[in-house]
Each structure stands twice: as C-alpha cells, then as structure tokens.
Amino acid sequence: MRILNGNTFVVSDERGDIEASRTDPSGLFAWDTRFLSTWVLTVDGQRLGTLSVDDLQYFETRFFLAPGGGTVYIDAQLSVMRQRTVTEGFRERLAVLNHGEKAVELTVHMAADSDFADLFDVKNDESKKGELYHSVERDRLVYGYRRDTFHRATEITSEPRAKMDKNGLTYKIRVEPQSHWTCELRVTPILIGRNGKRTRLGGPKAAEDMGDDLDRWLESAPKLECEWGPLRRTYRRSLIDLAALRFSPLTSGGRSLPAAGLPWFMTMFGRDSIFTSLQALPFAPELAATTLRELAARQGTRFDDFRDEDPGRILHEMRYGESAAFLEQPHSPYYGNADATALFVVLLDEYERWTGDKALVRDLELEARAALRWVDEYADLLGNGYVWYQRRNEKSGLENQCWKDSWDSISYRDGSLPGFPRATCELQGYAYDARMRGARLARLIWKDPDYANKLEKQAADLKRRFNRDYWVADGEYYALALDAEGRQVDVLTSNIGHLLWSGIVPQSRARAIARHLLGPRLFSGWGVRTLALGEKRYNPIGYHVGTVWPFDCSFIAWGLRRYGFKKEAAQVAAGILDAAEYFDGRLPEAFGGYPREATKYPVQYPTACSPQAWSTGAPLLLLRTMLGLQPLEDSLVVDAALPVGIGQIELLGIPGRWGRVDAFGRGLLHTDRQGRGRPELGTGAKRRVSQRATT
C-alpha cells in the first residue's frame, strides 16, 4: 500500500505493517531518506490479518484488521482499525474494538525501528557508514543517525503515552465489552543541524486541511463531462495523482512542481517535470511556472565533470540524501541529460502562449538565452551542429542521456550498441523547436529581432541537415541516432513521433512517419512500442526496447495532430485510454508491448513507477489532442476529433490568457474493444473561442 504527499511517502503491506529489507523500498521516506524501516502491530504477540483496506485519499488509508489469518475465517471477538495520514511524516490512529460480551485485557505492541537508508542505498544495496542510535526522551522515542555533519532523526510520540524502548511502543489495555480503545501515534522526520538545532521536515497538518487543499485543486481544474464513464474516472484519477505528486522545493515559497514518480523519483527532475508541466498546461498552468523558476534557479553555471555540468545546462535530477551530501553520487544536482535544456525553452514559450505571462518570460530571459547557447555550443560535442551526449563522469554518470536512458536502448539493426558520443534523433527535434520558439520570444517579448533572425536561421539549417543525415531511405523513417562516425543507428523506434511534435519533419515525409507509428511493427493496439517488433533487441517487457509508455504516446498523438493526422492521433489516444481502464484509471510508467489481439488486457511491467508524473499527465495531453486545443493570441482554437466510443466530451472552464472557456466534441458511439476501426471519428466544428467567463 502506498500513500504520499509530495516527496514524503509510506509504502507498507496490506496490514499497514512495514518490514523493510536493505533492497526493499518500503517504509516512511522523506527527502530521499528512509525514516522508518519497521512498523509492525501485534496484539498479545500475534500479527493481524487484513479484512479490507480503504484507500481514502492519496494521503490517507484505513486498514481493517482482525486476529488470525490464513484461509479459514474464525468469528473474531476483536477487530482493529488503523487509519494513517501522511503529512511530512505520518499520523496513525489505532482503534481496538471489543465485540464480545466480556472485558478483555490486551497487550498492544508497535515494533519500530529506522535504518535511515538513503534511497540510493536501497536501489544499490549499500550499507550505512555512520552511527545509528536510539533514545527515550521524556514522552518520545527517538531513532537517530549521524555521519559527520549529516544528522537525521525519527521522533515517535503517542497519546495516550506508551511504555517505550528501542524495540518500539507497548500498551497494556483493558477494553470493556462492546467498547473500544484508541490511541494516536505521530512519526516525524527530523533534520539536526551542526549546532544541534532540530528542524521538523514539515509539521503536523490536519487531514481536513489536506482534504480542503485537494478539493480546491480539483475545483480549479476544468470540469469534464463525458458520455464514456471510464474517461471521467481516468481524468479524475489523473488530477488526484498529479496533486499527490506535487513537490515544493525549499526555495519555492510553498509553490509546487511535479515530482517524477513513486517510489524512486519523488524529487525534481528536469525532463520529467518539464514534460508533465507541458501535459498539464490546460489544466494546472501554475505547475509550469514553478517548474521554470526552480529549474532556472539551478541552471548550470560552470564546468563540473563529476556532475556533468556546463554553463546553461538544465539539471537532470536533484537529491537530498546522504549519498548526495557526501558526493558518493553526483545528484546535488546532476546535469546528465541532453534534452531538458532545449525543453526548458519549449516550456517557457508554450507557457506564455497559454497564460500570456510575459513577465515570467522577461524574468527568465537570461536563463533562456543561456539554455539556447548550451544547445548551440556545449551540446555540439563534434562541432557538426547536432546535439550529442557523452558522460564525463565515467563512474556514476548516466550513459544514455536521452529519455530512453537504459543501457541497451540505443542499438543498430543487428542489435549491437554504438559508441559515444551519440546524437539521438529527438534531441535534434527539441533543439529545432527550442530555436523556433526562442525566436518568437526574442521578437515579441525580448524585442531583439536580430537574435530572433539568428535562431530561425540556425533552426532552418538544422532541419535541412537533419533530413539529409537521419533519413533511412530504404525504410522511409528517421534513424534513432547518429554515431560518432556519422553512421545511422538505424532501428525503427517511437522517437520518430517526437519529431512530429517538434516540427522538424517536412510535410512531404510526415505521412510515411504516421504510417510507421500506426503500423503493426510499432502500434500494439494499446499504444506505440518504444522499439519496433522485429528489431534485434525487441522485447515486449524490455524497459525501453518494446514496452509502451503512455507519456511517449501522448506526445506522439500531439505530434500527429500537428501534421493534420487526426484519425491517427485519435487511434493512439483510444488505445492508451482503453489501457487506463484496466489500470483503474492510473496509467503506469510503462506496460508490455504485446499485440492487443494476443492479450485481453495490457500486461503490467513488473517494476513500473505508479503513480508516475508524465504517465499521470498523459490523459490530460490526450484530452487536449482529441479536442484540438491550441492557443492563438488571446483565443483558444478548438478542433475536436474524437475516436469511436468516446461519445460527447465537454471540457468546461479551461484556464488561459482568454480567461476561462469551454470546449466540446462528439465521437461516434460505436465501440470496438479490440481497437479496430478506431480511426473513425466524430468531430466538433473548428471554432475560435474568445475570452468568456464560465461558472
């Protein structure tokens, strides 16, 4: 069971118990440290069995338990409820209920401990290097860890008070017949400074306050009216999960950006936070503003081989745990990606198009120019005008610095891997798009037409060379990458869909790309595979070599719409939204790339993050794509093209520079659950909606 709030989360079993091993990501985590590794409830020395679990909110769960377990149920005279709420730590309310005719005397024990594992310790099975300790201080049990200046503690309190020792908390209780006993436990992560000052990592916050915050979040988002019930459920699930993944960096003044995903990536990521902010722009534009400001504040300023940092480069990942503090890994922050820097400029322009917030564009002019300079100078490792990547931190830096960052994601047709540096195709598309968008900002807001002309000239030159060097003539698609010798890494992948989104593909070649994306080698029926069926390294459950990624598909659909392929975009949207129904509305990071006709449901990828930010954002971008929402000056263009089975969609109160407006579209009501015939469309009339207040 997982509940979370920002970068604080709890992972337990279905009893609510935590028994973490060194490689198991269960426990209470905050700021990349596990503050609780044991939390096990017993009554009279016996573990409890689960009756049911209520997933109340993303931050709150209730467990119903009873003595005994196994396959045979015995009428219990006793039951236990434990209700857990995550704030920055967590609060747990225990209730022991006596259903019998006689009073009972019981020993209730909560075993507790903390190993203070860094999240990277758990991922890499590393042991601790510092000192663990515990103490009982007046009315609280404290577990602590210190290593030089790195000092963390877990504070546990109880009302009523318990007998406390290093093994946990014990209560001797008497419960009258048809009555109950309750207590409330609070577990709080503590940072201890050099001077011994204790800082609570967040403070107590009432569940009612968190519920009110969620209500406000949902109320501020556009309202979806839809005849297809699963889409309504998926939309609500996406909004709630996006709320759960909101992360407020210490410098943000309480404003939030999207953390990447549970359990491994509950922190700020350049690429993930940008992509999710793009997906969420028509629904929660404030996320984009915070993402831009926080990434700009941490933009690279120097050359640092350990962190793969360059001037102007946008960070890849920021970590706050022990291993980052002692430079055992470079994420403090780490800059090893080749795409977030161009995508930063893309997001800045798209944000302004939606919101009209020219002030932020002016505030971030220097950072945007520095990002474009990085694309032009520091990313061009071979001096031939392309964006390349090669890690300088050979020990702990990332080998692949594109979004497909696993070790075997970049390969030739024969399955062999190219050397470094590498220049994947979508990086060139992002660079092209960033220059075109940067030119728009320079001309309209920064009032620098000469710079705008320069960027447009660079973009045109890149587009010409790219279409010469990356085009695989015998297959009519773009190579995944170029190697250091300029040879094509010639496998067929989903990356070509990102090229449509960026606009680097000439119209004359777009239809061939669309055919590949919806052809049997790439399109599974549920979505577009990361690597085409038939390629040497294809594996339907390989991380980046055959699985379907909902985020990837959402940007592919957006790209198809850009080039006028409405039916194809609707087909991709239909597959992903159908898949969401089988995941109870919560799309995972990735799922299997098996052909749809071979499975009645999408096959789960075993270690996918869930919830994961850009998968949470995928239904939002697909809604935008199906409705054809496009900002145009102070108006919103609506050009709906909905797949079979959707029925009518109304999205009410879409925020933007136009105020709030409504959009609608109608699809055909015939439903084909096998994904065939999905290109059939129903459409709403293309219209331009001017400023209009909605209620």
UniProtKB/TrEMBL annotation:
InterPro entries: 6-hairpin_glycosidase_sf, 6hp_glycosidase-like_sf, GDE_N_bis, MGH1-like_GH. Residues 670-695 are annotated as: Disordered. One of its GO terms (biological process) is carbohydrate metabolic process. Residues 670-679 have a biased composition (Basic and acidic residues). Residues 5-186 form the Putative glycogen debranching enzyme N-terminal domain. SUPFAM superfamilies: Six-hairpin glycosidases. Residues 272-584 form the Mannosylglycerate hydrolase MGH1-like glycoside hydrolase domain. Keywords: Aminotransferase, Transferase. GO terms for molecular function: transaminase activity. Residues 685-695 have a biased composition (Basic residues). The keyword Transferase applies. This is Aminotransferase. It comes from Catellatospora chokoriensis.
